[in-house]
Design a protein that fits this description.
Elements lengths: L7 H14 L13 E6 L10 H19 L3 E3 L9 H10 L3 H18 L15 H16 L3 E11 L4 E3 L4 E2 L2 E2 L7 E10 L5 H6 L9 H11 L1 E10 L11 E6 L10 E4 L4 H8 L2 H10 L6 H6 L4 E10 L2 E11 L10 E4 L5 H10 L7 E2 L20 E2 L10 H13 L2 E2 L2 E2 L1 E7 L4 E2 L1 E2 L9 E4 L3 E4 L30 E3 L6 E4 L3 E2 L1 H4 L3 H4 L11 H7 L4 E5 L5 H15 L12 E4 L2 E7 L10 E6 L2 E6 L5 E9 L10 H8 L1 H9 L8 E2 L2 H21 L16 H22 L3 H20 L6 H18 L4 H11 L22 E8 L2 E9 L4 H9 L2 H7 L6 E5 L3 E5 L1
Parallel strand pairs: 1-2, 1-26, 10-12, 26-27, 28-32, 33-36
Antiparallel strand pairs: 3-4, 3-7, 5-6, 7-19, 8-9, 8-18, 10-13, 11-12, 14-15, 16-17, 20-25, 21-22, 21-24, 23-24, 28-31, 29-30, 30-31, 33-34, 35-36
The chain binds one RNA strand of 84 nucleotides through helix 7, helix 10, strand 19, strand 20 and helix 16.
RNA sequence: GCGGGCGUGGCGGAAUGGUAGACGCAAGGGACUUAAAAUCCCUGGACUUUUGUCGUGCGGGUUCGAGUCCCGCCGCCCGUACCA
């Protein structure tokens, strides 16, 4: 008998329409069922969706559909992270307005996402570039400003001196501007900041209250915030060397216990003392100018060769007046961290040691490692950073580092220097305030005005929104808002005089720091409807890329805290559960000239080796490494092509199978074909079995014969396993279980005769359950299977199958028997057998007696239900 | 540089400290077919003569037992505050 193949091209649109007409996924806040908020990180509308999106949204959709089947009231919205640089780049390159480019991309991508059959509530959709959205973001900005959580300060940017514009870090390539090629310099601008450091302590400690976050993400955030307890320690400058007007320099140190090992002080190139010293020291001034070319990124600064220049200034050791150490300006000291000045203890810090060796500074060990001889111990090229006993350190000798820390702190807190304590304890954070100013057009305008008489004045709330002007040009580099003829002109809300608008727009991370709250009441006049926000939040399951582990997630956590202070919601944390998915990667291909897309490559085998040829030109192709899909390497597979030829369910099934979702998945054509074969196999299983089954409403009772019982045990076990797997987001394992079940059902159905009422009833039960457990992953096919079974209604609204727990337990278990840790046989015992029974049975086994040769075992390890190990 | 992660057959991967390789892909063999596709069945870590021995990036360690835990390396990936 031949079965007609399942045709996703006709089936998928049909079911999508059925869901839409039933408004199945439009969520009501007050609907029945416990709330469950599933959210995937919303996409940047770059043009077309890519496989990473397919994976991200397929993962979230499984959770959403599963929870819905479990009876939850599920919120599963979608929107667009729509501001950002690519729209401006497109405007410059293709003369298309950023808004037009963005909204056209959104239209394309919405259509693509809809073809995936996602259970999204599209009625809540918005884009962050909608005036409606950024209007409310401007309100939030004013609220933060009023609470003192927004302020202005000077900070450095990458300046392209040819294009006369600020560059993003990714636009700086090897220290040069990406368009102009000019050497980039760092330049100070007054910019807007959010006071995230106000919450540093809570952002760090609250991580311990997020058990449903991956440990690695919590660790990364904790290290990023970087809490450290230390001393603010003032060093007097030796009078004969100090520049006029500066008496001392304050360092932050976490190791005051190593103070007697100090051999220099290093200050940041932009430290005031450095500037002062450079006034009379051209070599130093040149060095400081040089460091401005290193770039502003931490990676650039810290991978650069560590260099310093002596200032000629000397500082007096806080514990010994007769001891002076030189003050250097060093390129690895950051003004943003601590005080911008450190003391170097080369023996116990690797970077300080490298610096000391380079400039011939003394290396004096003061922490003696355990079991080392104080006379013989010395530090050559590896600093000793672990615990030990303090020595070479006067009154600290013999103490542990912790005790020495306390002793130094106590003494110097009590010592006066220039009328103030010489030291004070200080908790320091590596976390810096969040700079949100961008000198760009395509972002949310910062709603403040600059008035000559009143200074910086917030715009009145009722004057919002400050809308981006549409008549702009991208003919010249730089910010079009700056050179707009009229947009800047405004009236000061305080004095009524002339004022000019702020032309900085907000970092796009601001947009994505509260969108999850806006989804709970997307059309509210205020930024949130606190009732809706409090009802839905926190997001129960948030899913997105690991690349957002720190910044986006930390900013969102800050925003929730700031919004709570302003009364917009009452919430500790935005995301209760977090899952970070891996990337979709693909082989790369190139011919002599360029990267070649996978669709243009044909493979063959020559002498057992995989060989590739370019289809369009017949040129030989070199098969490159497996890399993240990217436009530049052209190793992209367009989801549209896959959906058009195999259907959305195949694409979904493929990205969910094989690779665990937190790891990278390698896209391969063969894998997709395998997934599609399984779609057809399921379809065949149902269509072929359907005529033998009792009618849908017949209430036939499954039999208790071997065949019926086997079918029932298999399916109930699978449902239990798949439920667990989905709860843990282990979709690859859920899929392996479904494969196993289908393998078994195919075999069992082959032995089933139409007249066997018990078995056919078991088969109907099995198929009805199977259709429902594949539904979250392949929702369209599940509807078709549901229809084949003649079940009423839509599979998408069918409840998750109930399992009979009595079918999950076995009365016999087979234990592997090891001798000296190596498996040598099996033993089948009753499931409830005690340790003693098992021991006895094991010792009676032939191969065990042989191994023992009459001796008693040295040891007999019995782990009931698991394993037995006989040690001889 | 720093912080975090990952590393298991030809490939993707499975394995509460307890039988390493479930499940899938690819491959090989067979059945069906005039033939092919599709489908179904069987075989696949390495070495070895049955018997075994060796195998989870490399080197050590803890344990009755290590892919899993600890220490030291190597390689790759993510982040590094203006890419999103």
């Amino acid at each position: 008998m031949t079965t007609e193949r399942y045709n996703p091209r006709t089936a998928e649109p049909k079911w999508q329409k059925a869901w839409a007409e039933a408004k199945l996924f439009e969520t009501q806040t007050d609907a029945a069922g416990e709330k469950y908020y599933v959210l995937e990180m919303f996409p940047y509308p770059s043009g077309r969706i890519h496989m990473g999106h397919v994976r991200n949204y397929a993962l979230g959709d499984v959770v959403a559909r599963y929870k819905r089947a479990k009876g939850f009231n599920v919120l599963h919205p979608m929107g667009w992270d729509a501001f950002g640089m690519p729209a401006e780049n497109a405007a410059m390159q293709n003369k298309v307005h950023p808004a037009k480019w963005t909204y056209e991309n959104i239209d394309t991508m919405r259509k693509q996402l809809k073809s995936m059959g996602l259970s999204l509530d599209w009625s809540r959709e918005f884009a962050t570039c909608d005036v409606d959205y950024y209007h409310r973001q401007q309100m939030l900005f004013l609220d933060l400003l009023a609470k003192g959580l927004a302020y202005r300060k000077k900070s450095k940017v990458n300046w392209d001196p040819v294009d006369m514009t600020v560059l993003a870090n990714e636009q700086v390539i090897d220290g040069k501007g990406w368009r102009s090629g000019a050497e980039v310099e760092s330049r100070e601008l007054t910019q807007w900041f959010f006071k995230i450091t106000d919450f540093a302590e809570d952002l760090s400690t609250a991580l311990d209250r997020l058990p449903e976050w991956p440990e690695k993400v919590r660790l990364m955030q904790k290290n990023w915030i970087g809490k450290s307890e230390g001393l603010m320690l003032r060093w007097a400058l030796a009078k004969d060397t100090a520049p006029a007007g500066i008496d001392d320099v304050t360092v932050f140190t976490t190791r005051p216990d190593t103070l007697y090992g100090a051999s220099f002080i290093a200050v940041a190139p932009d430290h005031p003392l450095a500037a002062k010293a450079a006034e009379s020291n051209p070599a130093l001034a040149a060095f400081i100018a040089e460091t401005r070319k290193t770039g502003t990124t931490a990676a650039a600064i810290e991978t650069a060769e560590k260099k310093g220049v002596a200032t000629g200034i000397e500082a007096v050791h806080p514990l010994d007046e007769s001891w002076r150490v030189p003050v250097y300006v060093a390129n690895f000291v950051l003004m943003e961290y601590g005080t911008g000045a450190v003391f170097g203890c080369p023996a116990h810090d690797q970077r300080d040691l490298d610096f000391a060796r380079k400039y011939g500074l003394p290396v004096r060990p003061v922490v003696l490692p355990p079991h080392e001889d104080p006379v013989a111990f010395s530090v050559a090229d590896k600093a000793y950073v672990d615990d030990g006993v303090i020595y070479n350190s006067a009154f600290l000798d013999g103490k542990t580092p912790d005790e020495a820390f306390e002793a130094v702190a106590e003494r110097l807190e009590a010592t006066q220097l220039f009328g103030a304590p010489q030291a004070s304890r200080k908790v320091n954070y590596r976390l810096r305030d969040w700079g949100i100013s961008r000198q760009r057009y395509w972002g949310c305008p910062i709603p403040v005005l600059h008035c000559e008489s009143c200074g910086v004045v917030p715009e009145k709330r009722e004057n919002l929104p400050i809308v981006l002007p549409e008549d702009i040009d991208f003919d010249k580099p730089g910010n079009p808002l700056d050179r707009h003829p009229t947009w800047r002109k405004a009236t000061c809300p305080q004095c009524g005089g002339d004022a000019s608008r702020e032309t900085d727009t907000m970092d796009t991370f601001v947009d994505s720091s509260w969108y999850f709250a806006r989804f709970t009441a997307p059309r509210a006049d205020e930024p949130t409807d606190p009732q809706a926000a409090n009802a839905w939040l926190p997001v129960d399951q948030y899913i997105g890329g690991i690349e957002h582990a720190i910044l986006h997630l930390l900013y969102s956590r800050f925003f929730v805290r700031a919004m709570r202070e302003c009364g917009h919601l009452d919430l500790d944390e935005p995301f209760k559960g977090l899952f970070t998915q891996g990337m979709v990667v693909h082989e790369t291909y190139r011919d002599r000239r360029e990267w070649v897309p996978p669709v243009d490559v044909r493979f063959s085998e020559t002498e057992g080796k995989r060989v590739a040829t370019r289809i369009s030109t017949n040129a030989p192709i070199e098969i490159g490494g497996i890399e993240k899909m990217s436009k530049s390497k052209k190793n992209v597979v367009d989801p549209d092509d896959i959906i058009a030829s195999y259907g959305a369910d195949t694409a979904r099934w493929f990205v969910l199978s094989d690779s665990p979702p937190d790891r990278d998945v390698i896209w391969s054509e063969a894998g997709v074909e395998g997934a599609h074969r399984f779609v057809q196999r399921l379809w065949r299983l149902f269509v072929d079995a359907a005529p033998k089954l009792p009618a849908a409403g017949a209430r036939a009772t499954p039999g208790s014969d071997d065949l019926s019982l086997n079918i029932r045990k298999a399916v109930h076990r699978t449902v239990a396993g798949v439920s667990d797997d989905i709860e843990r987001l282990a979709f690859n394992k859920a899929i392996a279980r479904v494969h196993e079940l289908v393998n078994q059902l195919s075999a069992s159905f082959g032995r089933m005769e139409a007249g066997n009422g018990g078995a056919t009833a078991a088969a109907r039960e099995a198929l009805s359950m199977l259709a429902r457990i594949v539904a979250p992953m392949m929702p369209h096919l599940a509807e078709a299977l549901w229809e084949v079974l003649g079940e009423p209604g839509l599979a998408a609204s069918a409840p998750w199958p109930q399992i009979d727990r009595s079918l999950l337990v076995d009365d016999q278990v087979t234990l592997p028997i090891q001798i000296n840790g190596k498996k040598r046989g099996d033993l089948t015992v009753p499931a409830d057998a005690g340790k003693a029974d098992i021991e006895q049975a094991v010792l009676a086994l032939d191969f065990v007696r042989e191994a023992l040769a009459g001796q008693a075992p040295k040891r007999l390890v019995v782990v009931p239900g698991r394993i037995v190990n006989v040690v001889v």
